[in-house]
Amino acid sequence: MDRSRREFLQAGSGAGALALAAAAGLIRSGQAFAQEWNKAAFETKSVAATLKALGGSGSTESAQIQITAPDIAENGAVVPITIESALPKTEAIAILIEKNPNTLSADFDIPPGTDPFITTRVKMAETSNIYAVVKAGGKYYHAAKEIKVTLGGCGG
Amino acid sequence: MADPMRIRASMLGDKVEVRVLMAHEMETGQRKDASGALVPAHFIQSVTVTHAGKTVLSAQWGTSISKNPFMHFRFKGGKPGEKVTITWVDNKGERRTDEAVIAGGS
Questions:
Q1: What CATH homologous superfamily does B6-101 map to?
Q2: ipTM of the shown complex
Q3: Helices (H) and strands (E) in chain A — how many of each?
Q4: Residue A25: helix, strand or coil by DSSP?
Q5: What pLDDT score was predicted for residue B12?
Q6: What part of A 67-106 touches B (C-beta under 8 Å)?
C-alpha cells in the first residue's frame, strides 16, 4: 500500500500535468455548455424581463395555449404541469413561474415533427401565476393559470 | 455518477410517446443545510433528445424543475425498434446519456 503511494507521488509531476490538462479540458467543455445555456434569461425575476431575455418584446394572450395543472398543489416541490399549444408553427414553449425567486423554469425547443406538447414537474415557492409562453411563427403568445401552493417547494 | 434515466418510448398512433425520469438532485442553490450554510446549486441545465440523428426535443432548465425531473412529450417519424437517445448536462458539466428502444403499441 505504502509503496504504491510513494510511486504514485514520484510519478506525480507527470501525472499531475496530465490531470490538469484533463481538468482544463473538462472545464472548457463545461463553459461551452454554460454559454449555450441562456444564463441571462434564467436569472430574470419578472415575467416581462424573462420575455425580453428570451427575445420577445411582448406577447399576446392566446386561448390556443392550454395549461393543465392542479388548482391547488399540496406540495410545491412537485407540481405537474402540461402545456399544449394549438398555435401553428410552435417553435418553443417556456414555463414561467411569476413568484419564484427566478421566473423562468424551463424553455423547450420544439422542432418540426414534435408535438407542441410537454409535461414536466416544477417547484413553486408560493401561490403564483404560472405562464406558458409559446413562440410560434416568430411571435410570442402566452397563457396564465394560478396555482395555489399549500407547502412551498424551495426548502429553506 | 448519476443513476441511469428511466425512459419509456412507445408508439401512440403514428407518433412516438416518450416519458423520461432522470435521477438528479436539482439543488436550487437557495436551500440551507443543517448548519445554515447554503447548499450550492446543482441542476440539469440542458436536455437533448435525438432520434435517427435528428434532435426531436431540446430543453434548457433552471433550478425550479423538480428533483428527479420528469418529462413527457411526443414526436412523429419514429418506428418500433428504433432508438431514442437522451442526454442531459448539469451546471457542473456532468452529463449522462441513455437510450431506449421504441416499443410497439396501439
A1: Immunoglobulins (2.60.40.10)
A2: 0.93
A3: 4, 9
A4: helix
A5: 94
A6: 77-80, 82, 97, 100-102, 104-106
